[in-house]
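Give me structure tokens for this 146-residue protein.
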Amino acid sequence: MYNRKKNIDLLVSHLWKLGYTIIKRKLGTYLSDPPTVNGYEIDIVAKFHRQYAMGICIDKRDLQDSKFLEKLNYLASRKTKTGNKEVLLFMGFPFEIYKTVKDLTASLDDPIKRNIYLVPVYETVQSDLFSPNYDKVFQKNVERVQ
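Here you go.
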């Protein structure tokens, strides 16, 4: 079953582990909702130093949408207003649809693919806080589309 709030929370925790500060997020308690970008809804707006990033959580239903590739193409090609810097797009999704998402993003143009990061989100059960693999699990899951 798809739980949107839970997936957004997991994507937020991935971005925190990568050093991003969450500026706006959907379904949160204290932060405001992010604006729509040309009619497309985004779930997270984050910042790392002067680098901005957007996050979206998708599921199987989104993959069946006929305008999904158009949405990815538009969101991944965004630039900031002031510095004309590229805005990264982090896509969070259940691990079950990883291959489908990877195939869809591989069909995009090369300059656009560089801005997309795939993040399969799932809960990890950590039995030991001092385990050597505790912090490494998040950084291995983020993959840049090539």
